[in-house]
Amino acid sequence: MSVSLFSRKDTKVQLAVLRRCLEALLRHVGETRAELEISLVGAARIRALNREYREKDKVTDVLSFPIEASSPKGDRPWHLGEIVIATPVAKDQARRAGRRLTQQVLRLAVHGFVHLHGEDHEIGVAEAKRFEALEKKYLQYLDKKGLMPWDGSLRF
């Protein structure tokens, strides 16, 4: 199992915390052979990706790109996918919500993690409720395990 993180050198996100939390989530859902990539990018890059892959010419906060739908047989590691997070958007969201940047980036990473597992909140009310329940479940798990910097501001 591995979580690869890619970001600019000047990021204010606590990358070790982000990695530790996502590795814990992978273990929690039983994906001990999964590989996951997280890329922290600027507004221009996420806008270009959003335009290219979703045909939406606007900046967004997080995108998910699943690679392999399910774990292969045997011991071979498998690539779950990539989560791309716009740090300028996350920074603004964190400021408005009174959260730390790392908390907001983690929240967005969990959002992407749920997408990588085949869930979609944009297709209907029932699906949106299921999606939100999974996000809450994962954030509560991280909170109970004491794995994230917590000050109570990341409401479930």
Task: Characterise the protein shown here.
This protein has a single domain, classed as Metalloproteases ("zincins"), catalytic domain (Collagenase (Catalytic Domain), 3-Layer(aba) Sandwich). Helix content is about 45%, strand content about 15%. A 4-stranded mixed β-sheet has the order 1-2-4-3, with helices on both faces. The longest helix has 21 residues. The model has no long low-confidence stretch (mean pLDDT about 90). The chain is globular, with a radius of gyration of 15 Å. It is built from 5 helices and 4 strands, in the order βαβαββααα. It is an alpha/beta fold and about 160 residues long.
Annotate the secondary structure layout:
Layout: E1 2-6, H1 15-28, E2 34-41, H2 43-54, E3 62-66, E4 78-86, H3 87-97, H4 101-116, H5 125-145
What are the main properties of this structure?
single chain; 47% helix; Collagenase (Catalytic Domain); alpha/beta; globular; 4 strands; 156 residues; four-stranded mixed β-sheet; 5 helices
